[in-house]
Amino acid sequence: MTATQIRQAFLDFFAAKGHTIVPSAPIVVKDDPTLMFTNAGMNQFKAIFLGEEPAKFPRVADTQRCLRVSGKHNDLEEVGIDTYHHTMFEMLGNWSFGDYFKKEAIDWSWELLTKVYKLDKDRLYVTYFEGDEKEGLAKDTETYNLWKQYVDEAHILPGNKKDNFWEMGETGPCGPCSEIHFDSRPDNERKEVSGAVLVNADHDQVIEIWNNVFMQFNRLKDGSLQPLPAQHVDTGMGFERLVRVLQGKTSNYDTDVFQPMIQFIAEKSGKKYNSAAKPGDNDWSEAVAMRVMADHIRAISFAISDGQLPSNNKAGYVIRRILRRAVRYQYQYLGFKEPFFKSISAFAGGTV
Ligand code: GLY
Known about the structure:
Elements: H1 3-16, E1 20-21, H2 46-49, E2 59-67, E3 69-70, E4 73-74, E5 88-97, H3 102-116, E6 124-129, H4 141-148, E7 156-159, H5 161-164, E8 165-167, E9 172-183, H6 187-192, E10 206-219, E11 225-238, H7 239-246, H8 259-269, H9 284-305, H10 314-334, H11 341-348
Parallel strand pairs: 1-2, 6-7
Antiparallel strand pairs: 2-5, 3-4, 5-11, 6-9, 8-9, 9-10, 10-11
The structure holds glycine (GLY).
């Protein structure tokens, strides 16, 4: 499947389950002092979760452009060095506003991944929240039992508050979550070391693809958790990661989302892109620089088109920092001396 078909299959699947498909909100957030950029698909629904606004529809799904470069969710320094973090990424999401809860969310995520996308079940791992005494939160045995219908127990793993209790920011909606991870390693490596020990261990071939959050609390300024008026579902699947897994690649940058940009950068710099380069190899810095440029120009292009120009303060300064990082890599490792970003940005539109 192409990236475009993969995105459409997600939206079609949830439309068939009664979800209304809504557009992505802008990346730049102008009306929430706790946030500069959209960092998750649920941001545009925050007031609904908090019970401050009624939901227009009980179930919605979308693909949301997100930027994780500031505040609680910040991946900037990983980008380019690894092959699965981005400054801007698309988050495929389905939401229930006080409608369905854990059972349907889990049933449907399994159905979509294994029946529609036909992912190999043996390579999938799921997690559940192990509880947290200090916060007074119990272990999520309901989620564990729901997964047990489909998943071998050796592939159902407990997770702590850092990985399995999702929070939008320092304050705001939050709740226990259940992640789905995919192990892309070759069979011989999988036989030697179980993927179970590599989940949430920063292994670049055992990566989280989807997070199902069961929204039940509001984190207040004093750090306490207040139960929400209703229970909701908030899910986020990393589109670029899903495409990589479905296209059988070991790097997000090897998919049809990024290859046109990467190949253009490689051609113009007169260097080859080596996806397999490792730290210490001669072409490692060049490969990192090409990934940085492709990722960053895409993020900057969409931030600008969504209303945030680079500037010297607040959100504008964050965009300027991304721009500077891209400039640094292009000069230092790829030898570009002339302005070049404008021609790459033409590709950005084709990636979303
Ligand atoms: N809100 C779900 C996530 O970002 O993982």
